[in-house]
Design brief:
alpha+beta, globular, binds flavin-adenine dinucleotide
């Protein structure tokens, strides 16, 4: 077994890190305060090819592997979780189309998503429906050559500026997925402000009132919306969020290593106090553990191994809960400064909490992971029984 980045992945990691250091670190706090991501920052992300980095080259993307995509999400997440959220939802839409889109949908949308000419957003949640996502209340009806959508979507990341939404609705009580361009008649976009974290991610509500879209905008088939389209996009989104959480945790660790080396109390640097070192130890170990779980999920994704879905849930659960704990300690270590806008750790703390809620909350991951634990246990017992029978009969 070899656990090392390839030279190409290492090269990409260095490039991503340098992009974040030069373009993002200094402005992330301002974006957070202004609840806005500047267009020129998104343009820079697009120009670097990062928005379409995972799409295959045949569609104009960078064709990077899952591990390299993870490294990109970690680095962007280290700088600004809002911008990482853009990468996440944009690629969820692109990935869903790649997997479930028709030939003409791919030909029309994928090259535009790859270059960032078009920004995609993922519209599943509603005022009454979050975790229980397959029971969305938005409806779709077929009318001649169009679909008519009615309902409301909430918390749509970068909904304020997205060009196309992947919207989930019940068509004859069967969850189905539709592409809704932002200028569709009957679609109204309302900005949401004042969120706890990822404040620059320009959230919006979508109001669909007899919203009319062409028939060719159905993605996959009727009834494929949740089990196929949403689930594959959510797995990809979860993977990106897990890596983004490693980025937040790494940013907290780096901030604390620097702060505790400079700040003095009781005549010595904070880093000389054992209780501070204990928190640093937990950070070092847990960042590494979270990153290793992400590597495992990415490795399986690159192999096309279906076990990657559960490994991604495990990585997202561990990385998001770890990021929350680490960010909590980072604020503690920074004392009063940690509670002020002069240091970024309070932003990391607010952003980390959001990561426990999105892409399947901590509790939803716990339910899936516990089920998996029991399944593994039953399988192990079954194979032990089988081996015992084979031995007895031989
Ligand atoms: C900043 C931000 C960005 C977002 N971006 C998007 C986006 O781009 N697109 C989109 O579609 N949605 C988005 N969301 C919505 C997000 O996906 C939902 O908030 C999430 O799925 C949880 O749903 P909910 O908020 O309705 O909580 P609920 O589902 O109402 O859950 C409330 C609480 O109950 C717990 N809970 C629920 N069910 C169970 C259970 N069976 N057992 C135990 N506990 C349970 C949950 O874990 C949670 O703690 C975003 C949310 C935020 C905060």
């Amino acid at each position: 077994m070899q656990l090392e980045l390839t030279p190409q992945q290492k090269e990409k990691q260095i490039a991503y890190r340098s992009f974040v250091d030069s373009e993002i670190m200094d402005i992330a706090d301002r974006c957070d305060r202004q609840e806005h991501t500047p267009k020129d920052l998104i343009d820079k992300l697009a120009q670097k090819g990062y928005l379409g980095a995972v799409l295959p080259q045949e569609w104009g993307g960078g064709g990077i592997d899952a591990i390299a995509y993870g490294l990109l999400c970690e680095e962007i997440g280290r700088g600004c979780s809002s911008l990482r959220s853009l990468l996440t939802v944009h690629n969820m839409v692109a990935y869903a189309l790649l997997k479930w889109g028709s030939k003409s949908q791919k030909e029309y949308w994928l090259p535009k998503l790859a270059t960032g000419e078009v920004l995609g957003a993922f519209a599943l949640s509603e005022p009454n429906i979050g975790s229980d996502a397959k029971n969305v209340e938005t409806t779709a009806t077929n009318s001649g050559n169009s679909y008519i959508l009615n309902g409301q979507k909430k918390w749509i990341t970068y909904g304020q500026i997205a060009d196309v939404f992947l919207v989930f609705a019940q068509w004859d009580n069967q969850p189905s997925a539709f592409l809704v361009p932002k200028n569709s008649p009957g679609l109204t976009i309302k900005p949401i402000s004042g969120m706890l974290g990822v404040r620059a991610s320009m959230l919006a509500e979508l109001h669909l009132n007899d919203c009319q879209i062409p028939q060719e905008n159905l993605v996959g088939r009727r009834g494929f919306g949740f089990s196929c389209v949403a689930n594959s996009a959510l797995d990809y989104g979860r993977y990106s969020v897990a890596w983004g959480c490693v980025g937040i945790a790494q940013a907290c660790l780096e901030a604390c290593l620097q702060y505790t080396s400079q700040r003095q109390q009781f005549g010595v640097a904070l880093k000389e106090h054992q209780l501070i070192r204990q928190m640093i130890t937990e950070m070092v170990v847990n960042v590494k553990a979270a990153r290793l779980l992400c590597y495992q999920a990415g490795y399986l994704k690159d192999k096309g191994d279906p076990r990657s879905i559960m490994e991604t849930s495990i990585a997202k659960y561990f990385a998001s809960t770890t990021a929350t704990k680490i960010a909590n300690d980072a604020v503690q270590i920074h004392g009063g400064n940690g509670c002020s806008g002069d240091y970024p750790v309070q932003r990391y703390w607010r952003d980390a909490k959001i990561m426990e809620i999105i892409e399947g909350s901590t509790q939803i991951q716990q339910i899936a992971i516990a089920d998996y634990g029991y399944q593994q246990h039953s399988l192990a017992a079954f194979s032990r029984d089988l081996s015992a029978k084979v031995l007895t009969n031989s």
